[in-house]
Structure formats: C-alpha cells, structure tokens
Amino acid sequence: MRDRLEALQNSGLAEIQKTEDLKQLDDLRIKYLGKKGEITELMKGMKDLSNEERPLIGKLVNDVKEKISEEIDLKFNFLNEIQRKRQLETETIDITLPGRKITKGGLHPVTETELFIKEIFREMGFDVADGPEIEETYFNFDALNIPETHSSRDLQDTFYIKSDVVLRTHTSPVQIRYMKDREAPFRMICTGKVYRSDYDISHTPMFHQMEGLMVGENISFANLKAILTEFVSKVFGERKVRFRPHFFPFTEPSAEMDVECVVCGGKGCRLCKGTGWLEIMGCGMVDPEVLKEGGFDSEKVSGFAFGIGIERTTMLRHGIDDLRAFYENDMRFLKQFKK
Ligand code: DAH
User: Fold this and answer.
1) In the prediction, which pLDDT does 151 show?
2) What is the second-level CATH architecture of the domain 109-337?
3) Using alpha carbons only, how large is the chain's radius of gyration in Å?
4) Ligand 1 centroid to 21 CA: how many Å?
5) Which residues of the chain have pLDDT under 70?
6) CB-count burial class (<10 Å; 0-12, 13-18, 19+) for 18
7) Separation of CA 79 and ligand 1 centre (Å)
C-alpha cells in the first residue's frame, strides 16, 4: 500500500509537471482527487490493514492528497498567468471605434404646440398665469356666470371630487383667479390640462386648453379681432378668418373664430366637412358679471377672453385625424415630431 501510494504520488506529480493547459489540469484533479479518483480507489484497501497500520497509512494518504492538491494549485496559477499574458498580447481594443449613439428624446407634439402658441402671446406682451387642476365649483362655474342648471355641470360631463370641488372642465376659472388680485390693464394667458367625462375619436377625458384674457379701459371687439387674427396668422400662415356669433355664459357678445381650411384652402373637403372653414376657438367680450366677480367695475373697464383647444390646434397644424393617437404612446407616431 505504501508503495502504491508512493507510485501514485510520483506519477501524479510528473503528470502535473507535464500539463500545459488548464483543461488537462482539471482532468488530472478529477483523476487523482475526485470522488471516483485513484486515491479514493486505493483507500478501499484500508479495511484490510491491521489496526496499527491503518492510522499510519491514513496519514500517508492525506499527505499524498495534500501534496498533489498543492501542486495542482501552483500549476493552475502558473497556467492562468500565462493565459492572461497571451490574451493581453493578442487582443486589442480599438478605442477609435465610434460608440453606440444615445438617442435623444423629443417634445410631445401637444407640448410643442403649447410652448409654440404660448411664445406667440408672450411676444405680444401677455403674462403667463397658472391655476389648479382641482378646482372649486365657484371658480369653475359660478363666478363664470354658468348657472346652476347649465348642462356642463351635469355629472356626465364633469368629474366631481366633492359636491363643491371638481377637476376643472376648462381653463376659464384662471380668469377669475387672475383678476382677483390684479389691477387693470393687463393681458394674460394660461395653458393647462382640463378634464371632461368624454371618450371618442375627438374627445379624451383629459386634454389641454389655452385661455387668454385682456382687460383695460376701452378694450373693444376690434382689439380682440386684431390680436386673434395676428395669432392665427402666426400659427397657420396668412389665411382668411371669420367670427361667427355664438353663446358662452362668460362672454357677451360671444363668437367662434374660424380659419380658412388648412387642407383645401376654402373649397371644401373632408377635414372641414365641406364648409371650407375650421373652427379654432371660442372668444368674446368679458361679461359684466364676470368682471364683477373678478373685482372690476364694468363701467370703467372692459375686456375680451378666448379659449383654444391645444390638441385640436396640434391636429390642424400637423394633419392628424385621430385625437387618441396623442395618448397611445406609440413611438412610431411620436418620433415623427422629433426636431
Ligand atoms: N371655456 C370654453 C370651453 O371650454 C372656451 C372659451 C370660450 C373660453 C370663450 C373663453 C371664451 O375664454 O371667451 O369650451
């Protein structure tokens, strides 16, 4: 047994010496030290030894195991180091290769239009105001002269949070908030989200509006026409516009402003439903009741107001025919508007 152990140790060490790659070395580890390896095999003969011999041989077995294991570790480190060196010599990294491009995002078309039209009014001297999306019914309805019985107060149109608190259904309440702590003259705009319980090809429960208000002495419908005509020409180019009589509770007189169809130029097509005109905003002279709620004397000052749908304006600018495309987050759609 002693001799066989010695022979095993010698052949093991010799083989380890000769090995030149890591795979071979691993095979040797299994051959000598593995569960089914030569040493394990040899140990089966231990049971035939005498009681005196057994501990001596046992110690010898452990010594041989340790010796071979140490040798394998040494060789492993050695081969590993060689392999690393060879890799460093043969492999190169081309640091002149261009990196992967990071694609930059772009503005959502509705945001882009919002910023664009805001800038037009800012250039005309309008102050940019803001108001809450969760609004008191007083500001959203009462102060705007919208009677208790008006259909827009119905539960089906308005998202109520409490009996006197709603998600604002339009940006018009900002008119009242702004007037309450201002002196005339002033001109302001406000953009933001509004909410209505509606969903189809031309309505989403959330959409964006822009509100405008100009108040001062002798502000007339002529001022309204001048400012809004200038605005429309900046957004849609030089086109005919018209003002159609309409009704809004917060303006008197009220009008809807139309622009010559951006597709057919007035001849009549699918977009303008054959009329040659596209409706773009509601407007009018601020109702005396509304001025009063804002803290102004309608004998001394007058004003005009207007409200524009930002999604609708974006659709007309880019020829988009389904409003819902704005909120589906389809990158193929959104990427087309990247600048
Ligand atoms: N608030 C109206 C709406 O949501 C839009 C509007 C019409 C606003 C006329 C105005 C205005 O300021 O004068 O339908």
Assistant:
1) 83
2) 2-Layer Sandwich (3.30)
3) 42
4) 83
5) none
6) exposed
7) 81
